[in-house]
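Journal club prep, shared notes

We agreed each person brings one worked example of a sequence with its structure written out as tokens. Mine is Response regulatory domain-containing protein. I'm keeping it raw so we can talk through how to read the token line rather than staring at a rendered picture. Sequence first:
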Amino acid sequence: MAKKVLIIEDDTALAENLSSTIKAGGMEVLVCHDGEAGFRQAEEKKPDLILLDLVLPKKHGFKVMEDLQKNPNLKSIPVVVLTNLESPHDIEKASSFGIKAYLVKANYTLSEILKKIKEVLEG
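Then the structure, token by token:
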């Protein structure tokens, strides 16, 4: 069965490009454009990995990670952060939630992001 990736990203063009790339990599993709909807999708669909932006409407990415950690059914889902925030404070805060990778958008191509997702899913 194909692995399921949940993209939580408010930039619709980027979300579409990520979705196409990940689908081409053989995975199923769910897309949400705000933190609240993303968390609900995580609860309902139990994805194999969450690709999470931090600066999101309705619920910030840090709050999404906090809520995932509080939920025993969701806390084991690997999270890869994909954001423009690159301060050491933000990286440290995100790392405190046990994320699998912290990717700064400007530093990675779509194919490099796909490669990182596959690495995380393969353990």
